[in-house]
From TrEMBL:
It comes from the Bacteria. The lineage of its organism: Bacteria, Pseudomonadati, Pseudomonadota, Betaproteobacteria, Burkholderiales. It is an enzyme of class 1 (oxidoreductase). This is Short chain dehydrogenase. PANTHER family: DIHYDROANTICAPSIN 7-DEHYDROGENASE. It holds the Pfam family adh_short_C2. Residues 7-183 form the Ketoreductase domain. The keyword Coiled coil does not apply. Transmembrane segments: none annotated. Coiled coil: none annotated. The keyword Glycosyltransferase does not apply. The gene is fabG_9. Keywords: Oxidoreductase.
């Protein structure tokens, strides 16, 4: 039911995890993919794996905390593909620290990557976005519930929720803007957390398993697709029901 044939998706944080799973899913349904990530080596490896779908893949080594990098990456993507249909912004970090142990530099680094990067990309991509396109931003369960020892992360994700709703107003009716709030998803980002609290988190997840990157990719692809043509300014929570417990 979903086709991204002749469409281009720019996926940030595309070298692994949720970004890479989304790139695979959308490429499998016909999308041309531009993969952006700060990890150049992993990016090249990811692009090679994406080649199996037979579509064009562009790699964009870039740091989303640099507005110049974001501007350049969008220009390169537009030059190669002529325009962008979807921005899926997954790049982010998840450092653990209590507020009392968070230095000014720690706080600012997180805000630069997780929040400023969102602004830089969403600003840069606007002129390149084709009519009928969409933006999907990654928030988190932490934005809704708070998260012990991740206050800076939760604060940035909360800001992304209100930013996405505001941007949805600015870009309507030409482009839809939505957010996805994953719960506990097994990627490298949560390896330590799952090592420490995996069993406890599983016990409070009604669907009885941790989420996979593919679970989130499905929600993102849905929001980019015509099946979500009347959805904008919305947040889709994907967490196996953990929010209920
Ligand atoms: P991940 O660590 O597997 O992947 C994140 C990617 O972002 C990596 O490839 C990394 O190199 C890239 N990245 C980091 N800093 C960057 C920068 N400055 N510029 C460009 N790229 C950068 O993480 P994931 O689990 O796939 O998470 C993807 C998104 O989903 C993140 O925004 C994360 O906050 C959000 N999220 C994840 C979970 C989870 O449980 N995994 C839960 C809620 C929200």
């Amino acid at each position: 039911m979903i086709s991204f044939q002749n469409q281009t998706v720019l996926v940030t944080g595309g070298a692994m995890g949720i970004g890479l799973a989304t790139a695979h899913l959308m490429a499998r349904h016909g999308a041309r993919v531009a993969l952006l990530d700060v990890d150049g080596a992993r990016l090249a490896h990811a692009a090679e794996a994406l080649g199996v779908h037979g579509n064009e893949v562009l790699i964009l080594p870039a740091d989303v905390s640099s507005s110049a990098d974001c501007d350049r990456a969008v220009r390169q993507c537009q030059a190669r593909f002529g325009g962008i249909d979807h921005l899926v912004h997954c790049a982010g970090i998840y450092p653990e620290a209590l507020v009392k142990d968070t230095s000014d530099a720690d706080w600012q680094r997180l805000m630069h990557i997780n929040l400023n990067g969102t602004f830089y990309l969403c600003r840069a991509v606007q002129p390149a976005l084709r009519d009928g396109g969409s933006v999907v931003l990654l928030a988190s369960l932490a934005a809704h519930r708070g998260s012990h020892a991740h206050a800076a992360y939760a604060a940035a994700k909360g800001a992304i929720l209100s930013f996405s709703r505001s941007l949805a107003l600015e870009l309507a009716p030409r482009v839809r803007v939505n957010a996805v709030s994953p719960g506990i998803i097994a990627t490298s980002m949560t390896r330590d957390l799952l090592g420490q609290k995996g069993a406890q988190l599983l016990a409070s997840t009604p669907l009885g398993r941790h989420g996979s990157a593919e679970d989130i990719a499905g929600a993102i692809a849905f929001l980019c697709s015509p099946l979500a043509a009347f959805i904008t300014g919305e947040t889709l929570q994907v967490n196996g029901g953990i929010y209920l417990s």
